[in-house]
Amino acid sequence: MGALHAGHASLFSAARRETGFVAASIFVNPTQFGPNEDFAKYPRSFDRDVEICRAEGVDLIFHPEPTSLYPSGFRSYVEVHQFQSVLCGVTRPTHFRGVATVVLKLFNILQPDVAYFGQKDAQQARILEQMARDLDVPVRIALCPTVREPDGLAMSSRNQYLDAEQRQNATVLFRALEEIGRRIDGGERGAEPLLQLARDMVSATPGARLDYVELVAWDNLQPLATIEGKVLIALAVFFGTTRLIDNLLLTV
Predict the structure, then answer these.
(1) Among the options 5, 8, 63, 81, which is catalytic?
(2) Is 81 a catalytic residue?
(3) Topology of domain 6-144, per CATH?
(4) Structurally, what CATH architecture does the domain formed by 157-251 represent?
(5) Cβ atoms < 10 Å from Cβ of 57
(6) pLDDT tens digits, one per residue of 137-160
């Protein structure tokens, strides 16, 4: 959605290494914003985005107007049931419908062989992987590692909304996941003690308000009581009106 940063650049770099032609879509998609969300103020920096794309060897930028993707009379939407109503979908009930719809349109227009997504938006990537499989879309979804600031905060276009104190305290997301990872490495297999650890760390952080923390199976995004297989530990935390997400994806 534009406001590109080093996380996006890492996707371009992966595509440049692995494919013969790199296309980037830059489009602030109105259908994935709910009422009272930040569509109007979402950062838009197209000229700078073009420079980042050029530096990373992007061959084509697709930058449509909203009316070209959603013309008058538009009526069709894509839904991935069960996956879109959990985790971030609980408080953003129409978000993933908008994501799946616009991405399917982008796939149909650009016809990529591979589409690169960042792990920071892990639920989004899992939904799109399922959508492509269910609807026989001939594209491989490639999941690339989250790119972080030196203090661990996941890079996000929304980080620029944070004031200095919020920015400092926002590292609690990464610190909580890091501690959960250490405890799993140490042999902890019960989900609830790890979830409570994250709740306590967020609760103790000034200005932080927990939206959710969940430990789910990667294949169906349903909660796990015991940690085994490929699992996703995901959380969302508010600082003021800014909502940040992060996750840990691992196989036990």
Answers:
(1) 8
(2) no
(3) Rossmann fold (3.40.50)
(4) 2-Layer Sandwich (3.30)
(5) 12
(6) 999 999 999 999 999 999 999 999
